[in-house]
Design a protein that fits this description.
The chain has 5 helices and 6 strands, in the order E-H-H-E-E-E-H-E-H-E-H. The chain starts with a strand and ends with a helix. 39% of the residues lie in helices and 28% in strands.
């Protein structure tokens, strides 16, 4: 398993993954945020690759010296194998390298089911940033 920054060749497999994992509304919001984050800082869009297959991804952003986990997705065939935790740890390292003051998890109705994953990694309720704004508004 390899976690690395997004590369242009990942675009098609990544969009296929997101279409499979996310609801239509969540997919559209995520693709908008994904495109905006790539234009700002592609180093905060990470993909998990297993034997050349994109099996997971996480989008992060930094705003006002705070790091935000925005969206995480893992292919259903690869869930519960530690890929989500690996993606979160890898993005956390990027945040720490950039000396962010605080790391928060952006919460919306689409990622409520994965909050327990963050909690299992030591994040608490005060680390959850509940916003009614999209990533493009938060970090813009």
């Amino acid at each position: 398993m390899n976690v690395r920054s997004f590369q242009l060749s990942d675009y098609r497999p990544l969009t296929t993954l997101l279409e499979e994992v996310l609801t239509e509304e969540c997919y559209e919001q995520t693709m908008e945020a994904f495109a905006r984050q790539l234009s700002w800082d592609s180093e905060l869009v990470l993909v998990a690759v297993d034997q050349s297959e994109v099996v997971g991804m996480i989008i992060g952003t930094i705003d006002n010296n705070k790091g935000y986990y925005y969206r995480i997705a893992v292919h259903p065939d690869h869930q519960r194998k530690g890929i989500g935790k690996l993606l979160i740890q890898s993005l956390r390292q990027r945040f720490e390298q950039r000396n962010v003051q605080k790391i928060l998890i952006t919460v919306d109705e689409h990622n409520e089911p994965v909050l327990s994953l963050y909690e299992s990694m030591g994040y608490a309720a005060n680390d959850f940033f509940r916003s009614f704004h999209k990533l493009s508004i938060i970090a813009g």
